[in-house]
Write a structure and sequence with these properties.
InterPro entries: Tscrpt_reg_Rrf2, WH-like_DNA-bd_sf, WH_DNA-bd_sf. The protein is mainly alpha-helical and 135 residues long. The protein has six helices and two strands, in the order H-H-H-E-E-H-H-H. The relative contact order is 0.16.
Length: 135
């Protein structure tokens, strides 16, 4: 099963942008993340829409952080990325009229919903400057 590592990768980029004294190009970010510049532009574009970064074209252009790290939470970034699914566990629906399957699905869904609420709440408490101080 494939992991969605966009959140951790974007957090990495944002902290590097905060530490940089000049803009970083999509190519530089792509090299740092071992990905394609098109993927970087698409992802960073989501952050630009939310007002966290900006970009400039040209010789001295690139991506810059426009909001301080202490004003951006993990939840902000998670939401800017479209609020990707946190858990890859899935419920089965092959036997939807089976009372055992319904009971299992209800228990799993309740537990996963509770865990997601707690995790997202914690994400809202952690600002990026806290992460930057740990690095």
């Amino acid at each position: 099963m494939r992991k969605d590592s966009r959140l951790s990768r974007v957090l990495h980029v944002l902290i590097h942008l905060a530490a940089s004294d000049k803009p970083m190009t999509s190519g530089q970010i792509a090299e740092m993340l071992s990905t394609n510049p098109v993927v970087v532009r698409r992802t960073m574009g989501m952050l630009r829409v939310q007002g966290y970064v900006d970009s400039a074209k040209g010789h001295s252009g690139g991506w810059t952080l426009i909001k301080p790290l202490n004003e951006i939470t993990l939840l902000d970034v998670h939401n800017a990325l479209g609020g990707p699914t946190l858990f890859t566990l899935g419920l089965t629906d092959e036997h939807s009229n089976c009372f055992i399957e319904r009971a299992i699905n209800e228990a799993l869904k309740t537990a996963m919903d509770d865990a997601e609420k707690k995790l997202l709440s914690r994400f809202g408490e952690i600002t990026l400057d806290i992460l930057a101080k740990r690095s």
